[in-house]
Amino acid sequence: KIKKQIEFYFCDSNLPKDRFLLSKTKETPEGWVSLELIASFKKMRELGATTSKLAVAAAASDFLEVDQEVTRVRRTTPLPETDVTIPRSLHAKEFPGDTGIEQLESFFSGYGTVLSVRLLKADKKANADSDTAPISAFIEFSSKEEAEAICQKEISFANAKLEMVSKEEYLKQNPSASSENEKAKDG
User: 182: pLDDT confidence band, cut at 50, 70 and 90?
Assistant: First the structure.
């Protein structure tokens, strides 16, 4: 779980959208980030990640490396110039308000290879009871074709038919939605 989480932090899906971590990678020309900093993240603390456990996890990664002093981590490949996640992502809504990222990863894994899930926070103004109000999510798959095929299916979650569109279509329909990435809960 620690390896999966540290890879998520530095992956193409997350790092370009994570202003804080992206700024940390830019503090050194080589893109190094302190393992101590990564260990301080809430999710890592919940997983019991120490700097030594993080170093082992990063060293086992296909796209991360640890420095010789075993104190810092970085990507081995540059970030893509453009957002490669949009074409291979879809927007789905009508999930119960208490649905978690892990539930959605598990659910959508039955339909394709899930790379990431971003839960969008419920609109508190529109929904007085935002804990139970339906929520939506961006689900990123391994390819555009996979996401498109899933959008064509009629899928229900917790007895509710999901409304799904490509992320590209969603962003066209909701021009202000690009700011929703800042409000998204990642995993």
Answer: very low
The distance of Cα 183 from the centroid of its chain, to the nearest Å, equals: 12
147 vs 139: CA distance, rounded Å? 8
Q: Which residues of 76-114 are buried (b: 16+ CB within 10 A; e: fewer)?
A: eeeeeeeeebbbbbbbbebbeeebeeeebeebbeeebeb
Count of beta carbons in the 10 Å neighbourhood of residue 117: 26
Determine the pLDDT at residue 17. 85
**Are 92 and 139 spatial neighbours (Cβ–Cβ below 8 Å)?**
yes
Count CB-CB contacts under 10 A for residue 30: 8
- CATH classification number, 89-186, choose in 3.40.50.1820, 1.10.443.10, 2.130.10.10, 3.30.70.330: 3.30.70.330
End-to-end CA gap in the chain: 12
Cβ–Cβ under 8 Å, residues 122 and 93: no
Q: Which helix (H) or strand (E) holds 161?
A: strand 160-161
Domain coordinates in residue numbering, the chain: 2-75, 89-186
- The pTM of this model reads 0.70
